[in-house]
Design brief:
This protein is α/β, with parallel strands linked by helices. It is built from 11 helices and 4 strands. Helices cover about 55% and strands about 5% of the residues. The structure holds zinc ion.
């Protein structure tokens, strides 16, 4: 220990640890200060106008929703790729994440760090340019190219999803439901972290029945649900959260399964 090099290494290590702890404390303090800020009125007005789900909430739940929005925006990187993004886009991303997890108030997508906003839909090579014969068909995805949780969303499709009206499609909710499905390790349409083991069999049976109805043209569910069980879950969840009354009327059993998975009744009365 008397060796001067050893002493220098020990001293540098101690300084490093102190700086690390100080930086972590500062970050925590800055985050807490942000979370203590009053929810901006402009944000509240935007939520009321554009987010059907939020507009249905009672005062206490709306306030809880706003806290979750603040936390999500303060802790995730939301970045425009060759496109400008403003607070309204950040709010739409946060809403997409919070709506399906509203019944789990402590959940904040620990594996998601970055949400990239593309200027348009894109193809498998992530190109958004339009030229003759080119089909951009992907409006959102959970990017599996890296491990650190990135979601990509097409800006116009996200904006279309949050026009304040009830409808069946919402690309943001779709992608965040895939992430919840992934919590048990696999995006397979069976969100085992949310669905009790004894309901897995009946859920798969329900999927099979509804798929048969879609194939026969007897269902109003987007046929993209036929792709596989994971897409089925994401597609019906979009409908469940975006137009609950109609969904419950037309698909009572599916509604009951999704209420159980997400632990919430989207029809409020
Ligand atoms: Zn999907």
């Amino acid at each position: 220990m008397n060796n001067p090099i050893t002493l220098i290494i020990v001293a540098i290590s101690i300084i490093g640890i102190i700086l690390f702890i100080r930086s972590a404390k500062n970050k925590k303090k800055a985050l807490q200060e942000k979370l203590n800020e009053k929810f901006p009125i402009a944000w509240r007005n935007m939520l009321k106008k554009s987010v059907f789900f939020y507009a249905q909430l009672n005062e206490a739940d709306a306030s809880l929703f706003e806290k979750r929005v603040q936390l999500f925006i303060a802790t995730k990187q939301i970045e425009g790729i060759e496109t400008e993004i403003d607070d309204s886009i950040r709010l739409m991303v946060a809403c997409s994440a919070i709506i399906p997890t509203f019944a789990f108030p402590k959940y904040n997508y620990p594996y998601v760090h970055t949400i990239l906003i593309y200027p348009n839909s894109f193809d498998e090579k992530f190109q958004t340019e339009r030229f003759e014969g080119h089909k951009e068909i992907i409006t959102g995805m959970v990017d599996s190219r890296n491990q650190n949780g990135t979601v990509i969303l097409s800006k116009p499709d996200l904006v279309r999803a949050f026009d304040g009206l009830p409808h069946k499609e919402n690309v943001g909710i779709h992608e965040f439901v895939h992430l919840l499905d992934k919590e048990d390790g696999a995006i397979d349409g069976i969100p085992e972290a949310l669905l009790k083991h004894q309901f897995v069999g009946p859920w798969l049976h329900e999927i099979k029945n509804e798929i048969a109805r879609i194939e026969k043209g007897k269902s109003d569910i987007n046929p993209y649900a036929l792709t596989n069980n994971a897409e089925f879950l994401a597609v019906v969840s979009e409908y469940f959260f975006s137009n609950p009354e109609k969904f419950k009327n037309k698909h009572l059993e599916l509604y009951q399964f999704l209420s159980c998975i997400f632990n919430q009744d989207t029809v409020k009365n």
